[in-house]
Design goal:
Oligomer: single chain
Structural class: mainly alpha
Helix content: over 70%
CATH class of the largest domain: Mainly Alpha
Radius of gyration: 21 Å
CATH architecture of the largest domain: Orthogonal Bundle
CATH topology of the largest domain: Tetracycline Repressor, domain 2
CATH superfamily of the largest domain: Tetracycline Repressor, domain 2
Strand content: under 5%
Number of domains: 2
Largest sheet: none
Mean pLDDT: 87
Number of strands: 0
Shape: elongated
Low-confidence stretches: 1-7
Length: 214
């Protein structure tokens, strides 16, 4: 944290747009690190401000409460994950099996990243206290993948001449199967990336086998 604090030594006058943006970024990254390491309840706003190297007033001017800061961290983190996951989208073809497998593998690889697992543990511990945050996470995480896959299914139906009555329902089943496997098996410590990838592959194959029922 010493480097972070040194980079944000107080300066006189109103901060430039670039410096304000840098402060915002460091706040989110620092808060994320602290939340992951210590959990939501153990982290104080004063602690975040000190670690960043800013005053409490500066922090509260940007985030009115710890709950607000945590929500901002969650949204920013999911946005980063989504951006990272989309970097291989150029590999997609028009084949629906290939597209579904690509999305399924991307999900599995993302879910098995250590920081994702750590973040999920923190979220599970507080989501019952922040129902609006839980809904937001569902919309921008779970819902995001459902939208992508259902869009691919609908496009493939039109392209291949094979009707799909419920693209969203099929997408929801695929996403739920993979994320559900991860959610229930990670706590045991036995789930590996290879195992989840195999499960994702099997999920896609079963979905493809039932394509006429889509």
């Amino acid at each position: 944290m010493a480097t972070t604090s040194a980079a944000l030594q107080p300066k006189r006058g109103r901060p430039s747009a670039a410096r304000a943006s840098a402060i915002d970024r460091v706040i989110l990254e620092t808060a994320r690190t602290l939340f992951l390491a210590e959990g939501f309840d153990a982290v104080a706003m004063e602690q975040v401000a000190a670690a960043v190297g800013i005053s409490k007033g500066t922090l509260y001017a940007r985030h009115s409460s710890k709950e607000d800061l945590f929500t901002a961290v969650v949204k920013d983190t999911i946005a980063q994950w989504s951006s990272e996951a989309s970097k291989l989208d150029y590999l997609l073809t028009e084949d629906i099996r290939q597209r579904l497998r690509h999305h399924a593998y991307t999900m599995a690889k993302s879910l098995m990243q250590p920081d994702v697992i750590s973040f999920q543990r923190v979220l599970l511990g507080v989501q019952h206290r922040f129902p609006e945050l839980a809904e937001t996470i569902s919309d921008i995480g779970y819902g995001y993948m459902i939208d992508i896959i259902s869009g691919d299914i609908a496009a493939a139906a039109a392209r291949d001449g094979i009707p799909a009555r419920d693209p969203e329902g099929v997408a929801r089943m695929i996403v739920s199967a993979i994320s559900g496997c991860h959610l229930h098996e990670v706590p045991s410590g036995k789930l590996t990336l290879e195992r989840l990838l195999a499960y994702a592959d099997r999920t896609v194959e079963l979905a493809m086998a039932a394509r006429t029922a889509w």
